[in-house]
Amino acid sequence: MEVMQVLHMNKGDDENSYAKNSKVQSKIISLGKRINEEAIMQILCSNIPDIMGIADLGCSSGPNSLSVISEITDVIYAKCRELGRPTPELKVFLNDLPSNDFNFIFGSLPAFYDKLKKEKGSEFGPCFVSATPGSFYGRLFPSRSLHCVHSSSSLHWLSQVPAGLESNARTAMNKGKIYISKSSSLCVLEAYSLQFQKDFSSFLKSRSKEIVPGGCMLLSFMGRRSTDPTTDESCYHWELLAQALMSMVSEGLVEEEKVDSFNAPYYGPCAEETRLEIEKDGSFSVNRLETFEIDWDGGVDDVDTTSGAASRGQRVAKTIRAVVESMLESHFEKDIMDELFRRYGEMVEGYLSKTGTKYTNLVISMVRN
Ligand SMILES: C[S@@+](CC[C@H](N)C(=O)[O-])C[C@H]1O[C@@H](n2cnc3c(N)ncnc32)[C@H](O)[C@@H]1O
C-alpha cells in the first residue's frame, strides 16, 4: 500500500465528506489556539518581515485549514497594529498529498479573501494563497522561505506502513488487528515506534531547511499520555475497527487474510518520544509541549442532524470514515464500507457507554534556532 496514493480524506461536501465530518479536528485546532497565538506574537516581537511565508501542512479539503490561516492573519494584523507597523505581504501555502481535493478548498478562497478585506479594511495587505502538493516528509519549499509552519491532525500519519507489517509481508505479524493492540507482539510495537522516529526526523530535517532562523512551527497531532502504546487512549478506536472487520469475517463478508495483512500507517506518540526526536535533530527549541484530552466525537453539542448521525457512536463512525475510508477501500472491497461503519458505530456506542476513554492530542510550539 502506497500511502501517497491511497490516503486522502473523503472529497467534496457530501454526507460522508471530510468537509462535513471534521468537527473533532476543528475542536483540536481551537485547543491549540492560545499556544499558537503566543508563538506568533513572540516571533513578531523581534522582526516583522516585509513578506511573510506561512504554510499549513496536511491542509485537507474541509473548512479547517482556511480558518487556521484566518486566525494566524488575525494575530499578525493585531501585532502590527500594536507596533504601528505596516502589515507584511502574506504568502500562504496549503500543503497536502497530491490526491487531496485541493479544488474544494480553492472553492472557498473567494469568500476567504472577501472576509479578510472586509475585516481588515485599510490595513489589508496582499495575501496570496497557493497549493503545494507533496509529502511533508520531504522538502516542499525553498530554503529559508517560511516564517510560520502550522500542521494539525496530520503528523500521526506515517509515510508508510512500518517495515515487516506491509500487506505483502510473508508472514502476518499482527493477525486480526489493524494497529497496535494489547495482544500485539513487541516486534509490532517496535516497528511502529521506529517508523515514527524515522518519519518525524525527516519532517524536522526538511522544515529546518525551509524555516528562517527565529521562525515558528506549530504542530498538533494525536498522541498519548502514557509511554505504553497499548493503552486504550492510544489505540482503542483502531481496536474497535478491527473488531468490526472481524465480525464481518465471522459472517464470511470479509476474508480473514485481508484483515491480517492490513496495518494502518498511523502512530500516536507520547510527549517523551516526540521531544527526544526534536532534541536529536537539534534545529528547534521547544517553547511549549502540552497534551489535551478530547472526546471521540469532539464533545460537539450541536448535533449535525443534516448528516443523520444521531448517536454518539454514529458521529464517531462518520468522523473516522471520512478519514480512513480511502485507505480501507484500496485494501478491502468498496461495497463493505456502509456495513463496516454501521457495525463500528454500534461498537463505539457500546464502548463509550461503559468508559470515559478520550483521545490525547499533543500540541507543540517550537522556534527555529
Ligand atoms: C485529518 S486531516 C487534517 C486536515 C486539517 N489539518 C484539519 O485539521 O482539519 C490529515 C491530512 O493530512 C494529510 N497527510 C497525511 N500524510 C501526509 C504527508 N505525508 N504529507 C502531506 N499531507 C499528509 C492527509 O492527506 C490529510 O488530508
UniProtKB/TrEMBL annotation:
<protein>
    <recommendedName>
        <fullName>Jasmonate O-methyltransferase</fullName>
    </recommendedName>
</protein>
<dbReference type="InterPro" id="IPR042086">
    <property type="entry name" value="MeTrfase_capping"/>
</dbReference>
<dbReference type="InterPro" id="IPR029063">
    <property type="entry name" value="SAM-dependent_MTases_sf"/>
</dbReference>
<dbReference type="GO" id="GO:0046872">
    <property type="term" value="F:metal ion binding"/>
</dbReference>
<keyword id="KW-0489">Methyltransferase</keyword>
<dbReference type="InterPro" id="IPR005299">
    <property type="entry name" value="MeTrfase_7"/>
</dbReference>
<keyword id="KW-0479">Metal-binding</keyword>
<keyword id="KW-0808">Transferase</keyword>
<dbReference type="GO" id="GO:0032259">
    <property type="term" value="P:methylation"/>
</dbReference>
<dbReference type="Pfam" id="PF03492">
    <property type="entry name" value="Methyltransf_7"/>
</dbReference>
<keyword id="KW-0460">Magnesium</keyword>
<dbReference type="GO" id="GO:0008168">
    <property type="term" value="F:methyltransferase activity"/>
</dbReference>
